[in-house]
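Problem 3 from the worked examples.
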Amino acid sequence: MPRTLIADISHFLERTRTAVNAELERWSVEITRDPNDEVAAAISYSLQASGKRFRPALLLGAYEELGGRGEASELAAAIEIVHTYSLVHDDLPCMDDDDLRRGRPTTHRRFDVPTATVAGYQMVMLSARVLAAGAARLELDAQCVSAMALELYRAAGASGMVGGQVLDLEAEGKEISLEELERIHQAKTGALITASAVIGAMAAGTTDRTIATIREYGAHVGLAFQIVDDVLDATGTSRELGKTAGKDAAQQKPTFATLLGIDRAQAAANEHTDRAVALLRQHGLDCRILEGLAKFIVERDR
């Protein structure tokens, strides 16, 4: 990326991370009024862990660059709550059985498995409350709120994140094609990333044609994100990543890194981000931040 764009994206990510973290903190205080509520404590613990907040940044980038004028950080926080729920459940012993997430003990290690499991489910309900509150702050009409909710929970459910996780578990120890691997991660990772950008566009009140372009942009960004994750898992350390490195290999998961090799996988990630940027330009969308966020994916180190 050009140096000026790197500076702009760094500033944008810091600004949006600070705003979304403030909303997560506010909602954490709201739900932990009872000091004896272990599930609420587990939700708060999970939400206040450090993170890239990339999905909220995508929502806010799309919202701001497509004409949104209000404060959408609460809307973006709803996306992060859904993402965090997925991490809590991914880490459970029946799933990836992990001990480290975002640089500290996973939720089921800090509390226990039943508490973490229930906390994950309750985060889905909490995200609906936050989504509604964020939409009310922006004075969005009922039709827009309904469309955003449908977008988010389709992405999080059986046709998206949950369904992709099932396919991912079923693929462990098997040889699968590149097309099959892409199908898994278009659902498991890509669906929520795509929804983040699409919800930002919906909240901005842009046209159906623009939303369709943003959806296609998000699909390429989502695949690029997963490919880079696979490369980092194979090449990074646990300290660098804030989660257990080498976990994919230990669980015999098919990944882009194992299927393509490190260099070809990195090239594939670059290709997807280039296509995402090209889509915006082809449709006349001057979205410097969205272009920069796409490029950020392939240059990140965790």
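Problem 4, a separate protein:
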Amino acid sequence: MTPLHRVQEWYRRQCDGEWEHRYGIRIESCDNPGWWVKIDLNGTKLETLPFQSLAENVDPDGFQKGERWLSCKAAEGVWSGAGDETTLERILEVFLSWAENHGS
């Protein structure tokens, strides 16, 4: 199964007639250039689980330090992944690895 199909399945499992009216998944391009993925965790099994932040080629303030970069974290009920234009699939894989390892 592709990462996109797996994210679709994760989203489908969260939809309960209410969750999808307040929360969801956003995938956006950014001008670095790159990608920004935001996944709402509120109301899911993941909302209180710790996520080990990941930062590659990113400074302590979250700004890229080079051409290839990646940053993933969870805070305030939202999982966020951002990276250069080559990392969209990897960002989804980082989220999915965490979510699937916690039975979500």
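Solution to problem 4. Helices lie at 3-14, 19-22, 88-101. Residues 34 and 86 are 7 Å apart (CA to CA).
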